Amino acid sequence: MTAWLPASIFALFSFGVWGLFTKLAITHIDSKSALIFQSIGVLMVGLVTLSLIHFKPSTDFKGLSFGLLTGIAYGVGCFFYFMAADKGKLITVVTLTALYPLVTIILSFLILKEPITLKQMLGILTAMIAIYLLSS
After folding, report:
1. 115 φψ region: left (φ > 0), alpha (ψ -120 to 50), beta (else)
2. Coil, helix or strand at residue 57
3. Domain ranges of the chain
4. How buried is 79 (Cβ within 10 angstroms: 0-12 exposed, 13-18 middle, 19+ buried)?
5. Which of 100-108's residues contact partners 24+ apart within 8 Å by CB, and which partners?
6. Helix and strand element counts for the chain (H, E)
7. By C-alpha distance, which of 22, 43, 18, 20 is closest to 33?
8. How many CB atoms lie within 10 A of CB 31?
9. What are residue 92's phi and psi, to 5 degrees?
10. What distance in Å separates the CA atoms of residue 132 and residue 130, rounded to the nearest whole number?
11. How many beta carbons lie within 10 A of that of residue 105, not counting itself?
12. Distance from C-alpha of 30 to C-alpha of 33, rounded to nearest angstrom
């Protein structure tokens, strides 16, 4: 078995129940409050992770900066995700926002100069068609 596969499967499951828990939370509390409690949950996971590395995180400035930017981008994305889930159907919101890898792929191509194969380009095109079909 490939070394990354078990972690990917756990991530897939976690993100799947995260989407469901979002809708369950906002049926009982407002979306902004739900985001705050989600952030507390993320902090709890962070504290456990911190204890696993004996409270000595790496401190390279570039890595630290990008790590903070990752958290900010995630928080902003979650803010808008909660708002969308509060106003729309979860099936549509989850499917549409799950296409976020398209943004990463395009940015990786433009900034990191990672190549995109014809097969991958067809996948991107198919995903864009999915966005169109989901939004109509």
Report:
1. beta
2. coil
3. 1-88, 99-136
4. middle
5. 102/127, 102/128
6. 6, 0
7. 22
8. 20
9. -75, -45
10. 5
11. 17
12. 5
Residue 1 structure tokens: 């078995």
**What's the angle, vertex CA 39, arms to CA 53 and CA 82, rounded to 5?**
140
Print pLDDT tens along the chain (136 aa): 688 899 999 998 999 999 999 999 999 999 999 999 999 999 999 999 999 999 999 999 999 999 999 999 999 999 999 999 999 988 888 888 988 988 999 999 999 999 999 999 999 999 889 888 877 7
DSSP 8-state assignment for residue 2: -
Instruction: Check if the beta carbon of residue 127 is closer than 8 Å to that of residue 102.
Output: yes
| Token digits of residue 78 | 């979650």
- Let me know the angle formed at the C-alpha of 63 by 94 and 32, rounded to the nearest 5 degrees: 35
